[in-house]
What does this fold into?
Amino acid sequence: MLLLDDPAIIKGVENRIREEMVNAEYAVSQVLSEILKRFNTIEDPYLRSRGVDVRDVGRRVMANLLGSEQEVLSSLESPVVLISRDLDPSHTAGLSKKQLFGIATDLGGSTSHTAILARSLGIPAVVALKEVAEYTLPGQTVIVDGIHGEVVLNPDPEELEYYIELKKRYDQAEAEIAMNAEMPAITLDGREIELAANIEFSQEADQVKRFGGKGIGLFRTEFIRLLSLESEDMEEVHFRAYSHVLETLTPEPVIIRTLDLGGDKFLDNIPTGESNPFLGWRGIRICLDRPDNFRPQLRAVLRASVTGNAWLMIPMVTEVSQVIAVHELLAEISASLDKEGIPHGQIPPLGMMVETPAAAIRIADYIPHVDFISIGTNDLTQYTLAVDRGSPYVSDLFDPLHPAVLELIHDVVSRCRSAGIWTGLCGQMASSPLAVPILIGFGLDELSVPITLIPDVKKMISVIDTGEALELADRALGMSSATEVRELLMEYVITRYPEIILDEIRRDVVDRG
Ligand code: PEP
Ligand code: MG
It folds into this structure.
């Protein structure tokens, strides 16, 4: 206690934080190691050995600074704005809307998993700020403006007034849009688009109908795995989650995606030493290399499918043989469940995500082997443009409206349509106000979006004319840059969308020039 009260330590730490802008852990470790050095030069052996006390106190301070973060986050009782350099998916996964007013991080991109989770929890978030953590102090007044992607530190009274007014307008517009929850998603000229939900947690299924969604277009199952304990029976954990979702939403389809670990979602027993994890051991590659870990998930899907309309989808496909291997595993598992006398449904429709250029360019090779397709534009964009979806340094280059990405999506949809294969799109692009008209123009059967955005996307769909969208899509494909595509789309939506949605995209247009 006395050591911690020592002004030399406190001042030393404070000065370093103020002057060198370093974080507390670094400042404490530097100050303590300086003091320790001085102790080591003391001649008196008794006094010299008191260095041990300094080290001990230092360790405890560091443990508090470093180790208690997770505990503090999950035990938050009154809501806060969470500002951090980066967030682990497993940290964010345990949080709820009641605990957080907003999130701001230095790292990440609009499709990184922190952003995806924040969206699914309905928490305002701004990512890729590069240095917000360095400039924020605990207790500071902070505004997280998720509409425009801005964070305001220490707002002045005028700024506060502006944001209070903006929030009021936003809440009103959201309430109006949400009133259409019961209505189907229909274009101006009467074409129905299946509007489904992306979920990460089984409990989210309870909200889908309330927000006006039709089934699940993407159930990311990684969080089931990441949040469970090593000792749990994984088949049972998956089975419970799927049964709940299927039962809640029956007869609507629920697209369960097989585990997509790797990339930026790691388990402790998966090596993280790869220099390019997004190009490494990820998704279906891990599942097929470790069939004993994969089987429990497939068994759970087959067993749960008696309670609803389950579809199964494979991520990160680059080889036809991967789809064939899953077919074989499903047949084997179905036979062994029969042998064990365990009730199960039919083998569900098997689809794949198109999220690699390999799969998109050669989609014709895959069509004979799949029942449906869903385009994952988050990864398709990152792999086509060679832009890491989680890096703030290249986030301006991450753009699904890039003509290279648009052409791949267009080609996949037209080939699938001619082959009579149902095609959805479940990347973040499906809820992007500028992209929605073009996606309708391409002729997708389904768009799958975070639950909280369903009402907004329904509103967007309702003001679009299919014929015009088709023409728009054609013209966009003839352009040579995302900037031109963006201008074209802006021109189309500006007279159609409500102000609150326009407000959101104006900023994006300005930011990207
Ligand atoms: C995608 O890549 O677009 C997708 C929907 O999958 P995830 O974001 O989980 O990688
Ligand atoms: Mg993906």
